[in-house]
Amino acid sequence: MSIAEVKKNAEQKMNKSVDSLKADLAKVRTGRAHTGILDHIQVDYYGSPTQISQVANVTLLDARTISVQPWEKKMVSVIEKAIRDSDLGLNPSSVGDIIRVPTPPLTEERRKEMVKLVKTEGEDAKVAVRNIRRDANEALKKMVKDKACSEDEERRAQDDIQKLTDRFVQQIDKLLTEKEKEVMTV
Predict the structure, then answer these.
(1) Smallest Cα–Cα separation from 14: which of 138, 155, 127?
(2) Which CATH superfamily is domain 3-27+107-184 in?
(3) What is the pLDDT of residue 128?
(4) Pfam families from the entry (predicted)?
(5) Helix residue ranges per DSSP H, the chain
(6) Domain 35-102 has CATH 3.10.50.40
(7) What per-residue string of b and e applies to 140-176 under the rule 16 or more CB within 10 Å gives b?
(8) What distance in Å separates the CA atoms of residue 176 and residue 11, rounded to the nearest whole number?
């Protein structure tokens, strides 16, 4: 493996960590409704666990209400139960073949809990990025030991990987600040 491959590999893994954080932050509920909060809920569809978006049309009715319209009439009760049993604290109600999911406004206390959760997610992402940096540096040390590169090349590559790490940590901090601001606005 060359120095360029080690750097490229580290950058790709760090990108995946940031993408994973973005996906996790999208699940954090703010005061407004958005269809993404139902993405991780699974329903039993003919014996196999399936995402709600695969068995129903999920749209927004207004700023605080999500509409779920199952493609099959018999899925209404199954989807309603799955949403109610999820850890989101939502209380869906069905009107005919449409399920309305109102998102209650967040209390100040709940908002602060959400900010703590966001910070925890961010810290986990930073740890993941730093672990990737450590693995890349170990790969570089191994290359020096195997005489695949010089110590000067290793030092320059370590500096580059540190700059890469700093850039991704900065990106994570920016995402966290935006999400905290979004959660705390009423």
Answers:
(1) 127
(2) Ribosome-recycling factor (1.10.132.20)
(3) 94
(4) RRF
(5) 3-27, 75-85, 108-145, 151-184
(6) no
(7) beebbeeeebeeeebeebbebbeebbeebbebbeebb
(8) 20
